[in-house]
Amino acid sequence: MIDIAPIMVIDNDVGMCALIEAILTDNGYSVTTFNSPFKAVAEIKNGNYSLVITDVKMPGMDGIQVLEQIKRFNKTIPVIIITAHATLDISIQALRKGADDMILKPFEAGELVLRVNNVLKNNALFKENIKLKEELRGRFKFENIIGISRVISNVLEKVKKIAPTDIPVLIIGESGTGKELIAQAIHYNSLRKDKSFIALNCGALPQNLIESELFGYKKGAFTGAAEDKAGLIETAHEGTLFLDEVGNLSMDAQKGLLRFLQEKELRRIGDNKNISVDVRIISATNLDLQTAIKEGKFREDLYYRLTGITINLPPLRERVEDIPLLASYFISLQNKKFNKNCAGFTPEAMDALISFNWPGNIRQLRNVIEAAYILSDSKYIDVDVIEQFLNIKTKDTDDLQSGEYYTALAKFEKDYFQSLLQKAKGNVEEAAKRAGLNLATLYRKIKKYGLKKEEF
Q1: Which residue has the higher pLDDT, 282 or 204?
Q2: For residue 294, what are the contacts with CB-CB under 8 A and spacing of at least 6?
Q3: Per-residue pLDDT, 433
Q4: Which of 24, 191, 216, 439 could be a cystine partner for 231, CB 3.0 to 4.6 Å?
Q5: Coil, helix or strand for 112?
Q6: What topology is assigned to 317-386 in CATH?
């Protein structure tokens, strides 16, 4: 028997209390009995109980009122009603007030134990579901999206403003930049957070299956349709549907999606009736949809339906100052997973991470760090481990060049970048923008010439 809190039994019949206590105790449960419903209700606020079993007919306070008081105090405590006078009215009242089960007197010992086991098992699943939802909400809190760069801060400010609304959102960004993470942050900080978040990668499925996945189908609609099936739009009712790589939708699927967005109704394939669905649509793409529209590959009217708000998610190379934070976070995840204590990266290894262009963005960074973590035997991951996964040069090629020309060029560059940082007051992003350089290049120059942005 699993270790659980005591079961509370409430019945003004002393003999019935003793019977239930004996049955449950013989099956490994701890039981506390009360003959007064008033004392029981007062006690439940002070104690820790896994389940309440209460009679209906009791003087002063009946079982339905006891049920009400318990659920008002703590909705997660399951309650079983026992009665010798089960009527339709009592049954309806009990269910409406939140009763988890009802047992008729007289009952067999085996039936009581079975009902108690089932209620406790279902309640454990219910609590686990609540815990998982709370963990998801915690994971997608805004402060848990890692980054201090101005570009990611601007994205999060926009996300905070639009999350509580129902406006459709289009997230634009390269592969691996975290588009689905932003979509989840919007959902779990919206009024729909207790409902489903359903994601569909429109580029991962054959185009002939996309429509049936989105809209569902009736039995016999096509070969293989052996039963009715709800589509993802319908499944996400009252929640959020995330359409990743929406630019890959076929023209037929685009037409059906547009119809749904206009009418808020869908029709399963092979059906002759419409279904009303309330769902928020968040879509994402790494394609230039404007170009796709000009080429006749994407419907312009659908584009405007999807783009209530557009979020441009920057590539990692434009938020280089976030790399140390992201790297530290991924290391902490690995430490937790493998119960180790890797302290991070050597300065040379971190320079290599910062200098790399990261065409695969955050996804690539995470994969490289996880692989390097496995291969490294040291407290700090060194650059030679990083080099096994990235095509990088650990030394600036300019350092290998000599002569008057290169000496003069180096002096010019140092003076130029020093002046640039002064004008930007140490803001590296602003300096890079003025110079027309990407952040990674500017950080390499800052390191090469020993400049410290904090001094400006």
Answers
A1: 282
A2: none
A3: 82
A4: 216
A5: helix
A6: Helicase, Ruva Protein; domain 3 (1.10.8)
Taking CA atoms, 444 is separated from 73, 316, 394, 408, 448, in Å, by: 60, 15, 11, 19, 6
Domain ranges in the chain are 7-135, 143-314, 317-386, 397-455
- Residue 24: name the closest of 110, 82, 123 by CA: 110
- DSSP-derived 3-state class of residue 327: helix
Place of tokens 């390499």: 444
Return the higher-pLDDT residue of 286 and 404. Answer: 286
Give the residue from 376, 314, 378, 387 showing the smallest Cα distance to 353.
Answer: 387
Binning pLDDT at 50, 70 and 90, where does residue 1 land? very low
Matching CATH number, 143-314, of 3.40.50.300, 1.10.10.10, 3.90.650.10, 3.30.450.20: 3.40.50.300
pLDDT tier for residue 86 given thresholds of 50, 70 and 90: low
Residues 139-153 as b/e (b if ≥16 CB within 10 A, e otherwise) read ebeeeebbbebebbe
* Residue where the block lists tokens 């932003």: 182
